[in-house]
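Intended use. Records like the one below are meant for learning the mapping from a protein sequence to its folded structure. Do not use them to infer anything beyond what is encoded.
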Amino acid sequence: MTGPKVSFGLLVLQIRRRLRMTQAELGEAIGYSPTLVSDIERGRREATLEFLAQLALVAARELDTPPDRLPPDGLLRAACAQCPVGQAYDQIAAAHKAA
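Structure written out for the chain above:
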């Protein structure tokens, strides 16, 4: 099964691995359950804008990098472009600047 949810989930998985976190650790860091993180990574559930924003903030903080510069080559920007919620990148970048 392929599609936007699966593609987005794989990008979330790549970000989590880049952070060197388990699903439980990422879930705790962003305020969601490990089950939800797993479901999103596997394409079973759609990520909300809030999930994506929290992921961006945690990734930016942990990697000490603005969300649009997260390796490799703007991975979070690519994830946002595929997010089923829609084009969320600008809102995430604004949230990062406000934090």
